[in-house]
## 1
Amino acid sequence: MANEEDQQVKNREEMAGRLMVALDVPDVAQARLLIEKLKGIPCYMKVGMQLFYAAGPDFIRELKARGYSVFLDVKMHDIPNTVRGGAESLTLLGVDMFNVHAAGGKTMMAAALEGATKAVSQQPSLQLPLIIAVTQLTSTSQETMNAEIGIDGTVTDTVVRYAKLAAEAGLHGVVASPQESAVIAAACGPKFRTVTPGIRPAGASMDDQSRVMTPGQAIRQGSHFLVVGRPITAAADPRQAALTIIEEMSQA
Ligand code: C5P
């Protein structure tokens, strides 16, 4: 019985480490309020453009000092030389994961890996961060991709093509919809990470996401990390919302 309980606690902790809370707030004060509410939950913290552009590197150092793993979601997309330099700076900051757009091409993605590798060689105490490629935003429907972005075929075709390109460039995984996790694992192998936003507990508002799944479904599809923003940050009780999601992940 005790063993079973230990196993459940371990499982919940492992699942908490696979939950990435999107700190999509405008400033450090609001981010700290949220962190306070989630205190003790060993989740990953995802810092996106809104907070990073407002709070800067100091806040990343603060999260690291508080013991969190940090995913810096700044989706770099530029010429290889610029991305190489950006990746070097982010790695020196100590982030555990950052991302680039696969649409920047293989040379650009490889440049991100080179920049990160250079930073680690300068400071051997650092670990190489997981470098993840964005395939198609989870807010993008097939209609938008075909008619506006100008890419033919299904979203899944593009996601798989980009995932293979990212793997060839040496990157560690992709951001994609949880609906695509299984097909990505089939194309790139089970170790190639899938980081999946577009998570909505049953009955939650879709907001601006279109390709969504529940936390349990995402885990069953093989997603390595689940990115959750508004279902936690906009909840009346963010702590309870996070714990409920972790429980659902553990049950899956
Ligand atoms: O609030 P919500 O759960 O929709 O937040 C999803 C988070 O994941 C946001 O921070 C968004 O920027 C990010 N994201 C996404 N789709 C991607 C990549 C990142 O929704 N393809």
## 2
Amino acid sequence: MVKETIRVYARVKPLGRRQQAAIYSVDNDETSLSSLEVIMPHDLADGFVNNKRESYKFKFQKIFDQEEKQDVVFDSIAKPVAESVLAGYNGTIFAYGQTGSGKTFTITGGAERYSDRGIIPRTLSYVFNNLQKDSSKVYTTHVSYLEIYNECGYDLLDPRHEASRLEDLPKVTIMEDPDQNIHLKNLSLQLASNEEEALNLLFLGDTNRMIAETPMNQASTRSHCIFTIHISSKEPGSATIRRSKLHLVDLAGSERVAKTGVGGHLLTEAKYINLSLHYLEQVIIALAEKNRSHIPYRNSMMTSVLRDSLGGNCMTTMIATLSIDKRNIDESISTCRFAQRVALIKNEVVLNEEIDPRLMIVQLQKEIQELKDELALVTGKQRTSELSQEELLQLDELIETFLQDNDPDSTLDVGADIRKIKYCFLRVKQLMKHSKMSEEKLLSQHLPEEKDIGKEAAEEELKKLKEILQQRDNEINILVNMLKKEKKKSQNALFQLNAASCGTTVLEQSLSLNLDESQSPSCRFSLKEEKDFSSSVHRLPFLSRQTGGKMSLGCQEAFEVFKRDHADNITIEDNKLLLKQRFAEAKHLGEKLNEVRNRINHLKGEIIQRRIQRAALAVSSPSEELNTLDLVEEKLRMQMEEEKKSYKEMFGHLKGLKIEIEHLQLLMEKLKMKLQKDFEVWWSQEAINLQTQQEKPETVSSPNSATVYPQCIKSSQHLSSDSSSETTRVSPNENPPRKDNSITSSNPTLKTRTPPKSSTSVPLTGDNQADADILAFIKARQNILQKKGLGNK
Ligand code: ADP
Ligand code: MG
């Protein structure tokens, strides 16, 4: 067992363009802890802190200042934890800080550049690289991704892709076994046998997280996300399994609302917006206290799940993320204070080894056989489990002699053979029973008058026994039925389990394989890698799903304009370009690889040819020279080695490229989704504005008085915080027939907002729908132009 204090690091987020830096200094001492000093300006100190302290100093393991990059953060923080997880210990890394301070950026990564990959993708890469290198053990890796929002857990790795709200995801609940171990019911553990599969799962989780979040319910700032890598390892032939877990945790924003006290706003009394962070702090305070026996883990789901990570069996690391601009200085100080308390907690790390019972049985059976063999060697007899007929007869004789012997000191000696001893006891018991029965018989012969009474009693007894028999029969029938049901259930469960373990296959199947323009046929490259590439292209049909598969023309055009002006579009275009480049590189490399392979094959052919020739020559005209080393062959061999080396190098490079391409594709999907979401929010806002305008009769600008509800509004959740407001699902066939101003799709979950009954709206027909769309678009366009200052009123 190793006692470890929780390591605490700080990371300062780069300042935004319009932000003003607070006064702070970082002293990264190589030999001991680093320190961060924050100076609170006098005016602020007056407002927030009653004791008017000016300078605050905090100690950290290391402080990553604004310019530090993701790779450095990974190397210092996550690598040591990943290493101990590979060795069989549990690990946790959690990011704590206010919203916008860089928690998600640090844990998952930025959505723009490959180099912005965060701790999760880098750890996955590191873990799988190490597992591949170690052939001394058999490893199995699973991942899970849990989101906790409002004390409810949700499985983010739900492969059905149907979630449009958090509530659509499978609910995860906590269960505690008699040993007080926590189990998470309904959280799927997905098998990930390589980096690519694990990254796909991470992406699936992030996507579910993003889709489930609506602007009204900013889940990402109010929820905790826990990505867990589960590793089990076993040496071949050994019954011992090592199991370890690595939790990578993105906590909810730690911002607080200041409580108004007598002396104004008191920094020290500010309250968390998120209640479970309050409970986390309570757990941490309790753990820091000496001699405290009760730690209130059970108060919230998050503290229950992270129970081992806090003061338990886990190597834990915390990253305090800080926004160091002037306006956020009080929150940054709160974060640092929390970190100082966390740094006091000691965890006890133990190796998680357990014995596999099946393997144990095999081992024991082997041991028994060995002992039997040894015994046979010593006694000179092969011992079987049964006694021979001859031995039994001998024993019977011995027993009889013993029983008939009146000498009280007589003994029955059968030797040190447990089989014989057992047989003797059994035989004596049988003999005793037999003699008792004969005694009773004798007695009944002497008492004939009691015979009738006995007969009656026997009949009574028979009746009772029959009844009992009937009862047992019934019971057996019931049990057989129950058994059948259970069997069926377990078959179902097995089937589901299989389905879950094939999660990635399901995932792949549901991936849409539309080819993006960036993947034109000319960008393809040969080699079997190509298949892997195309299978991961465009995993999810986001756009069609998000819009319910239909977008009216007006809406579509507005989307095009919106997209063109959106900041992310530039990044998408950049990434597209980069992706094209990478594909071209990969294609080029693939071709080169093929060439090298051909050359190797050719050289191989030449060497074989050469050998045949020399062998034939040796037979026809033997000479000394033919027995010596063939220099030509040696040269060919060296050439081949060279080619092989370059083949290996290129292959490694291609593999790296493949991962980068994968990542870029994921980033683009994410950005596209974000764009789409932003558009939906904006569009629904426009719809509200338009509606309010049209409800005022004097501002009606179109002769058509239909109220416009743009068709691409996903759900009314965007419009109102009241989730019970009217939302209806209309299947496409129920839609009134429209002129061909819509792109059709097979997705049946089109959601439209029905107009409120009180409004003066008329049902939209094909014609006025088109008009309404055009009207909506003109309005929307005017709005965009106005925002840009180009409006023509
Ligand atoms: P949080 O998860 O704490 O709410 P985010 O990770 O979403 O915060 O960060 C907010 C914004 O700041 C994001 O746009 C993110 O890309 C950016 N950001 C955060 N940390 C860094 C950093 N170290 N370098 C560059 N950009 C960062
Ligand atoms: Mg975040």
